[in-house]
Amino acid sequence: MAPAGAFRHLSLALGAAVAALGSLLFIAWKIYFRDVNDSCIGWRRRWEQLLEAELSRNAPKGGQSLSCEYQVLVLGLDGAGKSSILHYVCSTEVKKCIAPTQGFNSVQLQDSGLQMALLEVGGSQNLRFYWNQYLSKAHILVFVVDSADGLRLHTARQELHCLLAEDPQLPLIVLANKQDKSDALSVAELHEELALHTLNNQREFFLLPTSATYAGLATANSVLHLKSLLIKLLAQI
Ligand SMILES: Nc1nc2c(ncn2[C@@H]2O[C@H](COP(=O)(O)OP(=O)(O)O)[C@@H](O)[C@H]2O)c(=O)[nH]1
Ligand SMILES: [Mg+2]
Asked: What pLDDT, on the 0 to 100 scale, is given for residue 35?
């Protein structure tokens, strides 16, 4: 039989080892979560800096007028077709592949004596947080919906109504995009699904069917309708 003193030493040594291991685990845990938090904060700061740079680029300097008279804010969930629409608004070049927007996309359009900047802010969840910061500068809000993305219609509706609550008068154009798809909801169905009947009558509101593929005439028609509507609305301001 081992003497009682040996057991006491053994249990003391075990206790010390457990305490040391516990401290090490605690320190490792703190370091790990500090790094995770720091990288989140760092990531958010980078976005904020990017947004600020974009905002200040668009802001009037020293009382001068903007190079672009009007600003059209183009929002909608990621993948809805915002960049595709902006591409075909400005170009007739056929593009089979449009890269996902990293943050922003801005195009300028001059038509019928009007100059406008169309600013797309990315629609992924982390960027939606910034959307309403752009509302105050916008003259028109264009909200693009993927008519064939039934699973995310509810999210699109929520995001749209959050934006509308911020500014009850901003003219609104909802684009029921991807109408070329066989499973696309019709304009009437989208009107219902997006609860557009609940909009107040203080704001001008339009719902247009669009298609922004390289496939054809539907895209050209969509773009023509959108352009002429933008011009009509901006000319009234
Ligand atoms: N079938 C079809 N695909 C579209 C249409 N508009 C956009 N797309 C496709 O949808 C994907 C996302 O488009 P994109 O313009 O990047 O969406 P964004 O994230 O809202 O800017 C791309 O693969 C586009 O080619 C459309 O009207 N019809
Ligand atoms: Mg895009």
From this structure: 47
Substitution site in 74, 78, 84, 190 for ligand 1 pocket (most atoms within 8 Å of beta carbon): 84
What's the confidence (pLDDT) of residue 59? 46
- Secondary structure, 3-state, the chain: CCCHHHHHHHHHHHHHHHHHHHHHHHHHHHHHHHHHHHHHHHHHHHHHHHHHHHHHHHCCCCCCCCCCCEEEEEECCCCCCHHHHHHHHHCCCCCCCCCCCCCEEEEEEEECCEEEEEEEECCCHHHHCCHHHHHHHCCEEEEEEECCCHHHHHHHHHHHHHHHHHCCCCCEEEEEECCCCCCCCCHHHHHHHCCHHHCCCCCCEEEEECCCCCCCHHHHHHHHHHHHHHHHHHHHC
Which atom of ligand 1 approaches the CA of 105 most closely?
Answer: 21
**Percent of residues, the chain, with pLDDT higher than 90:** 56
Share of the chain above pLDDT 70, in %: 80
- Name the residue ranges covered by the structural domains of the chain: 1-57, 68-236
Yes or no: domain 68-236 corresponds to CATH 3.30.160.20: no
